[in-house]
Structure formats: structure tokens, C-alpha cells
């Protein structure tokens, strides 16, 4: 509720409807419609189309409340001209004043979640207003602020919308583009970038898209068109002439180290493999650190996931020294308390690796402490997205239900900082251990 209040105090998006002399000022979960000639507030409406007609709900703490009330109920003929700065200040004040009413309506209707947040606002050539939300939905409004329809063609968050002619171009957080007609029907879509599509613009006969990583690409305005199916069929038939298939083996190693350090000989025996066949080595360790103070600090600040720990760094260095002799380089690692995951790739593969990201889910002590849980590391090699998840769950047969519950919790809640690029070819590797430690030769 407090977070919502803070968000609704700010104007996030502005849209000018010149044909109707109206201005739309949008917060995260509500709109304010203004008459651009008289600068009068016409309507406040939330994202679900519910109207708040009580414009006098400004709180006593609003230093501009008196002025805004005077503006709302005074006659347009007697109103003095105001500067643009004052107009936008009033827009902000109106949203602040409407925030309480919007929250009440949202709470009553169950629409207070962040998935409804507005991220994009555009007007189409037929005068309709279109909004895009975090949950991937696209909504159609008429020029008077009445919500007409909602369409859901993708689950990723909408980041940008552009209208050109009779088409809407919708850019998503996961790098996808979709084309809709002005009735909301899906015409086509494709993967445009490997990061969010922040903005789109028309230039000549192309739509140019700007991605979060700074990349810009151009797309023909006629796409998708009648010739696309013919081209797709021809390309599929000739795929063998332009597509290379690379075979690669992945070595996955898991070890419950029980807060100990292995000898060099034990590590060499553990990581022994045919040098020419393996291209990727993934190591998942459990119980690297298990002290009560260490676990508490990890839960409070999660500094281990960013900076590592002495034991974690020792394992990374020791394994790295062995793999270095086989031309491997580490491309990523992540530690959460006692769990550590790291990936090494062969040197000649490193320039094919991109989009490296990591995530962690705690399952210990009320799912707050990282002595149990999972650490994931995701990356892209060539055109395949690969995710490795190292899990550590409760031991023994009597804990089967608990392990299944924790696995389901990890599967449903593990979220990476950057969205998936939406690649069609993906692989996941899950390697799990219980609390029972393995045996090895210790250092002397």
C-alpha cells in the first residue's frame, strides 16, 4: 500500500490527443484526463477502467490542495491563464489526490498488484488509446477514457508500443516484437533482441528498435507479409546449406564438501575427463560454508552472492588451476551461503558465450537461510540457452516430501535479473544433493 502510494504520486507517461484537445497523464496504476484548452481535470480512472469522480480527495498534507480545488470547481471563463509548468504541477497534484481513491478501488476489486502497472502509452490512427502493462497485456481505450478491450498475446512485460498505419508494434521485456491490428488481433511476432525493447521509431521504410544492451535494429514495415511463408519454406529446405550444427559435451560435477578442502590429487581425479570432448565444465558444491554467523550474515546482506567467501574463493581457484591446464576459462559463478556454482568453458568457445546471469533461492529455516536451497547460472552458447541449477535439500527418506516441496518452490520462484531472450532452443541441468557429505582425501 505504501509503495503504491509513492508510485501514484508521480506522472510516468504523457500523451497529447490533439484531435480532442486532451492530455493523458499516467501514473503506474491510474490516468488523469485534462482539457488542454481550459487546463481542467476531466477524469481520473484506474487501469481497470473504474472512474473516481471525487476530485476533492486531496489530503490535508498536500500543500497545493487549496489551489487544485479552486481550479477544479471554478468557472473556465473566470480562470486566469496558467503556465505549462503550473499545468504539469497540477497534473501531479491530481494524481496524488486521486491515489487514495484509486487504492481503495483497486483493493476492493483485487487489482492492487504490480502486474497491472502501465509501462507504455500510445494513440493509434483511429483515435484509440493503447496501454501496455507489466503482465504483458495490451488494453484499448476510447478518447474519453473508457476501457474497451484487453488483449493478452504474450506473458513478458510490455516495454514500448508504436503505431504505424493500421498496425501496432509491441516491444516486450524479453526482446520479442509482436504486431497487432487495430482490433487487437495478433498478426505475427519474432525475437528481435536478447534484451528489453526500450523504444521504437519509424525511419524511411523501416521500424527501428532500441534494446536495453544498446543495440539498434531495423525491420521492414511490411513484415510480416504475404511473402514470409514462402521465404520460410525456402529457407527451411536449404537449411543444411547455411546452418552449422556443433556438438558439445558438458561435464557436470556435484560435491557436498562439508566445509572442508580437497587435496590436489582428489580434485584431479574428480575432474578427470577426455580433454577433446568436453567443452563446458559445471561445478556445483554444497556446504562450502555452514557456520551460524556466516549463514546469518548471508541472509541479512547476501554479500556472499556478490563477493564470495574465503572457502568459496579457495575452491574456485583450486578448480581453476586444474582446468587451466586444459585451456578452460571461468565465465561465471554464484555463491549463496553454503551453495556454490561455477562454469568454465574451453577458450575457443568463450567468444560464443553471452547473456550470463545468475539467481538464488533460499529454502532453509522458513525459506530465508541459504543452508538449503538452490543456485542457478544461465548463459547462452551459440543459439542455445543453458541453465544450470545446483540444489541442496534435506536428507534421508523421511524428508522426501520436504525435498519435493523445496524443489517445487525453487522451480516456481527462481528468477534471473535479466529476462530470457525467448530462444526456442533451451536446455536445463538440475543437480541435487542431500545433506549427507561425500568422502575424499583431505589435505595433509
UniProtKB/TrEMBL annotation:
Superkingdom of the source species: Eukaryota
Which GO biological process annotations does it have?
A: phosphatidylinositol dephosphorylation
Matching Gene3D superfamilies: Endonuclease/exonuclease/phosphatase, YVTN repeat-like/Quinoprotein amine dehydrogenase
Instruction: Give all residue intervals belonging to the Inositol polyphosphate-related phosphatase domain.
Output: 246-444
Against InterPro entries, the record matches this protein to: Beta-prop_IP5PC_F, Endo/exonu/phosph_ase_sf, IP5, IPPc, WD40/YVTN_repeat-like_dom_sf, WD40_repeat_dom_sf, WD40_rpt
A family per Pfam: Beta-prop_IP5PC_F
Any GO MF annotation of the entry: phosphatidylinositol-4,5-bisphosphate 5-phosphatase activity
Give the family per the record: Belongs to the inositol polyphosphate 5-phosphatase family.
Q: Which PANTHER family match?
A: BREVIS PLANT1, INOSITOL 5-PHOSPHATASE
The identity of this protein, by name, is: Inositol polyphosphate-related phosphatase domain-containing protein
Q: Which organism is it from?
A: Aegilops tauschii subsp. strangulata
Amino acid at each position: 500500500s505504501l509503495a503504491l502510494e509513492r508510485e501514484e504520486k508521480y506522472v510516468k507517461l504523457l500523451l497529447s490527443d490533439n484531435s480532442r484537445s486532451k492530455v493523458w497523464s499516467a501514473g503506474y496504476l491510474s490516468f488523469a484526463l485534462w482539457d488542454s484548452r481550459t487546463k481542467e481535470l476531466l477524469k481520473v480512472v484506474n487501469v481497470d477502467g473504474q472512474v473516481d469522480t471525487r476530485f476533492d480527495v486531496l489530503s490535508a498534507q498536500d500543500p497545493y490542495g487549496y489551489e487544485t480545488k479552486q481550479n477544479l470547481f471554478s468557472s473556465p471563463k473566470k480562470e486566469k491563464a496558467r503556465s505549462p509548468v503550473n499545468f504539469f504541477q497540477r497534473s501531479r497534484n491530481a494524481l496524488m489526490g486521486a491515489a487514495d481513491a484509486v487504492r481503495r478501488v483497486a483493493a476492493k476489486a483485487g487489482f492492487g498488484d504490480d502486474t497491472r502497472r502501465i509501462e507504455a502509452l500510445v494513440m493509434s490512427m483511429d483515435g484509440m488509446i493503447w496501454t501496455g502493462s507489466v503482465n504483458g497485456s495490451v488494453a484499448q481505450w476510447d478518447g474519453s477514457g473508457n476501457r474497451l478491450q484487453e488483449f493478452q498475446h504474450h506473458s513478458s512485460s510490455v516495454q514500448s508500443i508504436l503505431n504505424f498505419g493500421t498496425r501496432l508494434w509491441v516491444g516486450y521485456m524479453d526482446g520479442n516484437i509482436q504486431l497487432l491490428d487495430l482490433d487487437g488481433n495478433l498478426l505475427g511476432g519474432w525475437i528481435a533482441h536478447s534484451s528489453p525493447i526500450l523504444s521504437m521509431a519509424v525511419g524511411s521504410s523501416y521500424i527501428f528498435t532500441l534494446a536495453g544492451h544498446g543495440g539498434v535494429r531495423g525491420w521492414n514495415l511490411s513484415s510480416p507479409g504475404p511473402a514470409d511463408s514462402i521465404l520460410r519454406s525456402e529457407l527451411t529446405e536449404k537449411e543444411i546449406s547455411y546452418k552449422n550444427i556443433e556438438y558439445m559435451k558438458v561435464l557436470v560435477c556435484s560435491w557436498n564438501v562439508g566445509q572442508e578442502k580437497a587435496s590436489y590429487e582428489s580434485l584431479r581425479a574428480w575432474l578427470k575427463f577426455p580433454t577433446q570432448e568436453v567443452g563446458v565444465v559445471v561445478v556445483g558444491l554444497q556446504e562450502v560454508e555452514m557456520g551460524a554467523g556466516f549463514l546469518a550474515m548471508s541472509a541479512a546482506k547476501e554479500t556472499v552472492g556478490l563477493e564470495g567467501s574465503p572457502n568459496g574463493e579457495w575452491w574456485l581457484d583450486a578448480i581453476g588451476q586444474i582446468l587451466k591446464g586444459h585451456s578452460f576459462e571461468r565465465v561465471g559463478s554464484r555463491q549463496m551461503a553454503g551453495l556454490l556454482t561455477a562454469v568454465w568453458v574451453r577458450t575457443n568457445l568463450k567468444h560464443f558465450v553471452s547473456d550470463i546471469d545468475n539467481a538464488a533461492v533460499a529454502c532453509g529455516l522458513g525459506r530465508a537461510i541459504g543452508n538449503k536451497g538452490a543456485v542457478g547460472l544461465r548463459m547462452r552458447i551459440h543459439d542455445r540457452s543453458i541453465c544450470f541449477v545446483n540444489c541442496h535439500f534435506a536428507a534421508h527418506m523421511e524428508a522426501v516430501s520436504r525435498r519435493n516441496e523445496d524443489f517445487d518452490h525453487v522451480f516456481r520462484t527462481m528468477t534471473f535479473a535479466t529476462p530470457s531472450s525467448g530462444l526456442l532452443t533451451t536446455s536445463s541441468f538440475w543437480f541435487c544433493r542431500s545433506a549427507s557429505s561425500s568422502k575424499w582425501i583431505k589435505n595433509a
